[in-house]
## 1
Amino acid sequence: NAGVTQTPKFQVLKTGQSMTLQCAQDMNHEYMSWYRQDPGMGLRLIHYSVGAGITDQGEVPNGYNVSRSTTEDFPLRLLSAAPSQTSVYFCASRGAGAGPSYEQYFGPGTRLTVT
Amino acid sequence: GDSVTQMEGPVTLSEEAFLTINCTYTATGYPSLFWYVQYPGEGLQLLLKATKADDKGSNKGFEATYRKETTSFHLEKGSVQVSDSAVYFCALRGRDDKIIFGKGTRLHILP
C-alpha cells in the first residue's frame, strides 16, 4: 500500500512550457485534491474531484486543468507555465461518505520552479 | 465562506517549554476540525482531529479541544521536544466537504 504518490519530486520549467504533475492513490479513495503551498499563504485548493469523471474548481484554479478518468489517478496540467506558478504542489486523497472524520492523506509534494 | 485563522509564526521555544498555537475558525454549521503537521521536506500528516463540540483530540502529547462557544481549536503540548520542530496547520472540513487550511505556524524548538 503506497498511499498517495506524486511525480516528479522536482521540476524546472521555462515560461510558456507545459507539463503534467502526476498523482496516484491506491486506497480506493473517491475524493482527490490538488493544493499549492506558498510561503505565508498556507495551502490553497486548486482543483478537486469527488469521483471518476467529476472535477470542480477550488480557490485558485486559473492556469491549471485536471481530469479524473480513473479512481486512482488525478493529474494536474499546466498549459502555459508562468513564474507565479512557482510553488510546492501537494496531491491529497480521502474517502467520501457520511462520516465527518475521514482522514485526508497527502503525497510528498512536487517542487516546481518556473523561470 | 469558511475560514481558519491561526497565530503567525515563527514560534521559538526552549525544549520542555509549554506550547500553545491559537486557531479560530468561521464556518456555518458544525465543521470537523483538524491539526496537521509538516516536517521539513515532507507532506502534511494528520496530527489530531475533533468532530463535535467539546471533543478533545490528542496524539503524541499534543491536545486540542473543540470550543464552539469561542469557535476555537487551540493546539497545546505540555513539554515540547526538538523533534517537534515543524510547521503546524489548523484546518476545518465544512458543510460543503472541502478542507480549508490556515496559513501555518512554524515552530522552532531549541535544545
## 2
Amino acid sequence: KNQVEQSPQSLIILEGKNCTLQCNYTVSPFSNLRWYKQDTGRGPVSLTIMTFSENTKSNGRYTATLDADTKQSSLHITASQLSDSASYICVVSAGTSGTYKYIFGTGTRLKVLA
Amino acid sequence: GAGVSQSPRYKVAKRGQDVALRCDPISGHVSLFWYQQALGQGPEFLTYFQNEAQLDKSGLPSDRFFAERPEGSVSTLKIQRTQQEDSAVYLCASSLSPISNQPQHFGDGTRLSIL
C-alpha cells in the first residue's frame, strides 16, 4: 500500500534555531517527492520538487534531501523565523506518464517561538 | 486572477442539504484536483480532471459526491444529502500540465461544516 509517514508530528523551536523534518515513504512506482508549507487556514504552497535522480534541492532557507534507496527525505530549515510556523507536508507522486497519484503525509506542525 | 480561487470560503449547511463548491483554477492549467482535508490531517485525493475529462474519481467517498468541469476551466464539487462526516476543508489544486514534475497550485479551500 502506498504510504507517506512524517515525523515528528509536531515540533517547537526557538527563533533562529535550525530544525529537520523527516519523511519516509513506501510508494511505487516513484515519480517525485514534494514538500509543501501550509499556513493555518490556507492552501499548501510548494517548497521543493525532487525527482529520483536529485538528492538535494534548496529554496532559500529550506533544503530538502532525498535518498531513493532508503526511501527517505528530510526538510532542513535554517535560521528559523516566526513566519516558518506552519504545517509541512511531504507528498510523493506515484505513477507513470500521464497518470499520477499524489500521496500526502499527515504533516509536521512546526511552531517557532520568539 | 493570479492564483487558484475557491468559493465560498466557508459554508455551513444542515444535514441532508445539498452543497456546491466552486474552484477557479489558474488560467490555462490543464490539470485540476480536488482534495478533502480533515482537521490535523493531510489532504486526501478525491478526483482529477484533465481539461474537461474526469480521468480519476477513485477518491470520491460515496455516490453523494459529484464533480464536473464542463468547459475545462471552472470546476464544481457537489455533495448531495450532506452528512456530518462530510465536514472538512475541500481544497482545489491546478497544474499547468499532466507532466509529473509540474507544481500543484492550491486554493485556500472551502471549510464545510455540517450541522
